[in-house]
Structures are given as C-alpha cells and as structure tokens.
Amino acid sequence: MNRLVSTNRATTDPTSHKQILVEFMINQAESLTDPDVKTIITDLNILIKNKDASSLAIQNLSIYLDSTYGFQPSPNLWKEIKFLLIGLVAICVIFVAIYIWSKKKHPKGDAFSIFKVTILTLDFVLNALFIFTNGLEFDDLFFTGYVHNLIIIIIFILFKILIIFH
C-alpha cells in the first residue's frame, strides 16, 4: 500500500539555490485497482499547490512545501540524451575510420595524434561548460575552475606557438 517512498536524496534547485528538491519514488502497483503513476503525480501536485486547504495542512506538515512549485516528475533521461549518445557513437566511428585511413595512407606517421588533439579539446570544452553551468552552485569551484581553464588556454597557446615556430 505504500507506493510513495522517499529515496533519501535531496539537491538544491538549479534555478533557485534557496530551495531544496526532494526525490520520491513511486513503486509499482500491486493490483489493477491501484491508481497509475500519472494519477498519483497529478494528485500530489494538486495537494501541494493547495496545501492550505488539503489534508497536508494538518499538524503543519506542509510548511516547507512550495505551493508554487508543486510536485514535478523528474525527466526521463533516456529521452533527453538518446540522440546525443547516437551522435557520440557516430563521432567515435568517424574517428576510428579516420585513424584506420591515416594508418593505411601513412603507416609510419602518428595517426593517434588525431585522438589526442580531439580528446584534449573535448576535455577543455566540457570543463568550461561544467564550470559555467554548475560553477555558481559551488563558489570555490567557479573560481578554481576558471583559473584551471585559463591555465589550459595559456598552455594551448604556448604549444601552438612552439609548433608554428619549430
């Protein structure tokens, strides 16, 4: 009968750092007469948005619930990133094809350098994106990450200058 279970996970809301998001899991129905997940989500959303007039108002259990936010389901991660994963696999296949082609074309050359440059550039871009999207959640992380990326930019520029003049 207990279908709504706390996962004991909480995180700060990325849009408002003053709010905490609490995660719940809705267990599978044991019979056909139990309400489906969509109904439970809708009912909880209505209860929280109308917390002053609902049964949640008893014994002040709802004082920490935000009636403007309600109960929001977490997004389906697979639906959000499946095309990104397909693109990543396609890019990996392209790089492997380029590696095989360059090994056949220039057997004595360093064909693996294609991967080195790509991975270093990808690392830099992902670090920068992480810092600028999530860095403000952690004050120390933003400054140190910014300095870290600045040092990487300087090293990249120095290596490019050395390659050009060598």
Mind explaining what this structure looks like?
This protein is mainly alpha-helical. It folds into two domains: 4-60, no CATH class; 77-165. Helix content is 55%, strand content 10%. It contains four helices and two strands; from the N terminus they run ββαααα. It has a two-stranded antiparallel ribbon. Strand 1 (4-12) and strand 2 (20-26) form a beta hairpin. The mean pLDDT is 79. Keywords: Membrane, Transmembrane, Transmembrane helix. The chain crosses the membrane at residues 83-102, 114-133, 145-165.
List the helices and strands and how they pair.
Blueprint: E1 4-12, E2 20-26, H1 37-49, H2 77-105, H3 113-134, H4 139-165
Helix pairs in contact: 3-4
